[in-house]
Fold this protein.
Amino acid sequence: MAVYKQFNTNEVVVSPFKANKRFRFENNQVSSSDVCIEYYQSQQGTYLSGSFDTGFNTMQDGVNIFHSIKQLYYSNYLTSSWGDPMVTASFRSGGTGPQDQNLGQNSIVGNITGPRFENFLQSSVTQDRKFAQFSASVAPIGEAGTNTNVSESIDVNYNATPDSINIIFNAGEPNLESVGIDETYVLSTATWNGDLADSPFESALAPFFVGAFISNNNSTLTVASGTAPSFITNIALNQFPQTGVGKDAEIRIAWDATKVLNIEFTVAGEDYSAGDILTITADILNPLIPSATTQFTPGTSVQFIVEESDLNISPVQTINASQLVEERINPDVFLVADTPLGRGLTLKSNDVYNFITTAAADTITLTYLQAPRGPSVISIPSMLYGEAIQPSSFRFEYTSSINFTRSIVDDDGQGNLIATQSSSPSTPGDPGVPYWSGSIGQIFYSQGIAVITGPDSGSLREFAHNVGYKDNMNPNIISSSLSYSSSITIDENQYKCTVRESEFTFTTNPSALGVPGVLTTKPGQLFQSFDIGTISPVVGTYAIQPKTLLGTTNASTYYVFKDGDNNTIGQQYKIELRTVGNKSLEFIGWDGNGNGRRNALGQVQFNSTGSPAGIAQGFCDAINSVEGFNGEISCSLFTTQVANDSVHLIQSQAGEIGNTRIKYADSFNLLTFQDVNYAPQPSRGQEYFGNTLLGQTNYNIDGVDTYTGNKGAILNVTVNGTPRVVSIEVSSSNASNLTIAETFGGKNYNVGDILEIKGSDLGGSGIGYLNLVTDDVVKSNNVEVYHDFCTGSLFTPYVTTVGLYNEGNELVCVGKLARPLPISLYTDTTFMINFDTN
């Protein structure tokens, strides 16, 4: 049973509240893959892939990080920490002509564009964002930063060149600290200080030797016509395809009677390298040769591979550090995996330089430029802070490995990061001596981003660089910790449902309802249907309750798979079938094959597209399938006006005791949408089952179920002196030895029922029968009444479950009571339903 109650506005209360959770991460816990907090070191300068990797799990490029925070948070603070001035423009009139005409000389003076970003301002407090120190965020290496001494150099002793990509220095060199080079610098250039001829640096790009000669080792560029042998000279090489970057060389091309023989370089050009492939094609070469001479076969070509001996390779004095594997300080050299040779230089894989062995002893000058790193960024993922970081809850602690300054960074609740710095503790538990406090950055609560811009004396601005990055972690990570509180809004929904006294003290359970079919009280009518059988009664008048016998007729009904216009109805069918064992299945039309397949909702699908016969066959197959009723319901095609457009269903032992006619509530549930408005036809709760509203009258839709039991009628049977039964009438009074019935005529009788009258109830023996005909049963059409068990004054339904439904009648949540609760007949009952969302 189920009842519904509509809520009013004053009965629904939604109360939000904030839930916070505290997090703290020590040392390298932030780098765990299940935490995913990132420390990013932003970097000024030009983006170069792979140059400034930063982060622990989600690696980013430092230059990209720098420009991201600039755009999101600091585009209004590029010239002043208090904010850039408002950009304005003035209109200057150009005057008018003698007749006041516009001469078109008006102009706008001043900038007309400016910062247009709010930068996620989090309060009305004036912001102090120290980003202007990065020279409007565009300074190249060596031209900005807090240290004005932007260039330093040191000489190191060349030791050896073990291979073409490695050079090593003497042990212990270079001593960078001796000249003030620290981790704020990166290597810029390396310069050989000895004779150029002895330099270990060699250019991989070089001009050709004039007269260099390359032979053709195949015959793919073939002669088609003309005189031979011959040649053509001063041909620009760049007009032919080549793989390298070389330019400006010229060649002489020679051929014999069948093919091109060789090329010879007449102009050296520049920037060619060993391994370059030069391709001479007939399609480019033919227009360069006089037609009377020679023409080559169109579409043919020949390739020449440049060798090192063809090039005038020379040593160079200086190489750029961009060609070295490590642009940070003190790169290590490895000849074999995990076998260090000492400090030195290692080339990237490149086509610009090679290292060559030299016997000369001299020094190499390493020149360093200060790398003006940008702010350090702490990025906390949303899964760890919810909607926002709780203001005034953020704390970051870090001890610098450079000067051992201990910094404690807290947010002030207004989006600013305030650092308190002290000397490093001398003993465990010693807080150190505080000597400075001030603003060093901002925190953006709703994005989980903290940006440390500095300046400060504890290396906070560059702490992310100092702790390292993925697979290059530095022990400095041990000297840091991070804590904060997350924030999430939880909506508590409260529904107040008041059930008034005696409200809902009824049931909508179909099993409580029945059609009031009762035996007639017309005098003599029942006796006309009496079959004496073998009865042998004793003279007298008896009040009895007859027993209703089972018949053998099964319930049957029909589905017609067409609408009123005899058109196929596609996927408008949704049918529920229910057996006497209360097994219920929904069958749903769909546009696929494989009748009898279940979908995610547990519905059995059948193909409901195409002809009526095809739909009917699909429905038959689905019912008889393993996923369907697997033979529990007999299903066959039934021919009407359109061949095989109907399905005949036969259900053994249909319905329940007391219901002889097949009804919606007790056997099959038809939810068929057949008209253009998708209204159910027939409507829910029809008395007869089947498509009764489709005008089909040539088949029976009123099956008969079978059962054993009494239906409550009280009969007065009179036996005369023969002895024989002479009268059977419905009693007008109750016999004292019988159970009180709803009506003395019983209930739920149907034409075709057989009532058994036992001779033993009439003082004798044998059995007689009442075979009910139409005049024996009185029915109230389309009326259903409650059975007597739920009509008494003491009937009180019990509440066991409360469910909330939305406007689409979809179940949102279910609440189970700890014990069944009766609906009161005398007082209001109020249910308070609370549940949380978000």
About this structure: The chain has six helices and 55 strands. The chain has a mean pLDDT of 76.
